Amino acid sequence: MNEASERIDVRTSPAVKELIVRAASTAGMSVSAFLLSAAQERAQRLLADQESLTLSAADWQAFVAALDSLDKPRPRLSAAMARHREWESAKS
Protein backbone atom coordinates (compact mmCIF):
# COMPACT_ATOMS: atom_id res chain seq x y z
CA MET A 1 0.00 0.00 0.00
CA ASN A 2 1.36 3.44 -0.95
CA GLU A 3 1.50 5.77 2.00
CA ALA A 4 0.82 9.40 1.06
CA SER A 5 3.67 11.61 2.14
CA GLU A 6 3.54 14.57 -0.23
CA ARG A 7 1.12 17.49 -0.19
CA ILE A 8 -0.27 19.55 -3.08
CA ASP A 9 -2.08 22.81 -2.33
CA VAL A 10 -4.49 24.26 -4.87
CA ARG A 11 -6.35 27.58 -4.90
CA THR A 12 -9.37 28.06 -7.11
CA SER A 13 -12.47 30.16 -7.60
CA PRO A 14 -15.66 29.35 -5.72
CA ALA A 15 -17.35 28.29 -8.98
CA VAL A 16 -14.62 25.79 -9.87
CA LYS A 17 -14.57 24.46 -6.31
CA GLU A 18 -18.33 23.90 -6.41
CA LEU A 19 -18.00 22.10 -9.75
CA ILE A 20 -15.29 19.82 -8.34
CA VAL A 21 -17.22 19.15 -5.13
CA ARG A 22 -20.33 18.22 -7.14
CA ALA A 23 -18.37 15.94 -9.45
CA ALA A 24 -16.57 14.25 -6.55
CA SER A 25 -19.88 13.71 -4.76
CA THR A 26 -21.44 12.27 -7.90
CA ALA A 27 -18.47 9.88 -8.23
CA GLY A 28 -18.79 8.92 -4.56
CA MET A 29 -15.31 10.18 -3.80
CA SER A 30 -13.74 12.72 -1.51
CA VAL A 31 -12.59 15.92 -3.18
CA SER A 32 -8.95 14.97 -2.57
CA ALA A 33 -9.40 11.47 -4.05
CA PHE A 34 -11.30 12.92 -7.02
CA LEU A 35 -8.62 15.55 -7.72
CA LEU A 36 -5.78 13.05 -7.40
CA SER A 37 -7.53 10.54 -9.64
CA ALA A 38 -8.34 13.13 -12.30
CA ALA A 39 -4.85 14.62 -12.22
CA GLN A 40 -3.20 11.20 -12.39
CA GLU A 41 -5.36 10.09 -15.34
CA ARG A 42 -4.65 13.34 -17.22
CA ALA A 43 -0.92 13.15 -16.50
CA GLN A 44 -0.74 9.56 -17.75
CA ARG A 45 -2.64 10.44 -20.96
CA LEU A 46 -0.50 13.50 -21.61
CA LEU A 47 2.76 11.62 -21.10
CA ALA A 48 1.57 8.66 -23.19
CA ASP A 49 0.73 11.07 -26.02
CA GLN A 50 4.16 12.69 -25.78
CA GLU A 51 6.15 9.48 -25.35
CA SER A 52 4.56 7.35 -28.07
CA LEU A 53 4.73 7.60 -31.83
CA THR A 54 2.05 6.54 -34.30
CA LEU A 55 3.16 5.97 -37.87
CA SER A 56 1.21 5.46 -41.07
CA ALA A 57 1.93 2.25 -42.99
CA ALA A 58 4.20 4.15 -45.41
CA ASP A 59 6.07 5.87 -42.56
CA TRP A 60 6.47 2.51 -40.78
CA GLN A 61 8.01 0.99 -43.91
CA ALA A 62 10.41 3.94 -44.20
CA PHE A 63 11.33 3.57 -40.51
CA VAL A 64 12.01 -0.15 -40.89
CA ALA A 65 14.05 0.46 -44.04
CA ALA A 66 16.14 3.04 -42.18
CA LEU A 67 16.76 0.58 -39.34
CA ASP A 68 17.69 -2.16 -41.81
CA SER A 69 20.23 0.14 -43.49
CA LEU A 70 22.16 0.37 -40.22
CA ASP A 71 23.74 -3.04 -40.93
CA LYS A 72 25.86 -1.79 -43.82
CA PRO A 73 29.60 -1.27 -43.19
CA ARG A 74 30.64 2.13 -41.91
CA PRO A 75 34.35 2.52 -42.75
CA ARG A 76 34.74 5.95 -41.16
CA LEU A 77 33.16 4.70 -37.93
CA SER A 78 35.42 1.63 -37.94
CA ALA A 79 38.46 3.84 -38.47
CA ALA A 80 37.40 6.14 -35.62
CA MET A 81 36.94 3.15 -33.32
CA ALA A 82 40.39 1.84 -34.25
CA ARG A 83 41.95 5.24 -33.50
CA HIS A 84 40.15 5.32 -30.15
CA ARG A 85 41.43 1.84 -29.24
CA GLU A 86 44.98 2.94 -30.13
CA TRP A 87 44.58 6.10 -28.05
CA GLU A 88 43.24 4.07 -25.09
CA SER A 89 46.16 1.62 -25.24
CA ALA A 90 48.68 4.46 -25.50
CA LYS A 91 47.26 5.97 -22.28
CA SER A 92 47.84 2.77 -20.29
Write up this protein.
This protein is mainly α. The protein has two domains: 52 residues, Arc Repressor Mutant, CATH 1.10.1220; 38 residues, no CATH class. It contains four helices and no strands.
When the domains are counted, the total is 2
The CATH architecture classification of the largest domain is Orthogonal Bundle
- The oligomeric status of these chains comes to single chain
* Helix-strand makeup class: mainly alpha
How helix-rich are the residues, as a percent range? 55-70%
Please give the number of β-strands: 0
Shape, per Cα inertia axes? elongated
Please tell me how large the radius of gyration is: 27 Å
Strand content: under 5%
Question: Top keywords for this entry?
Answer:
92 residues; mainly alpha; Arc Repressor Mutant; 4 helices; 70% helix
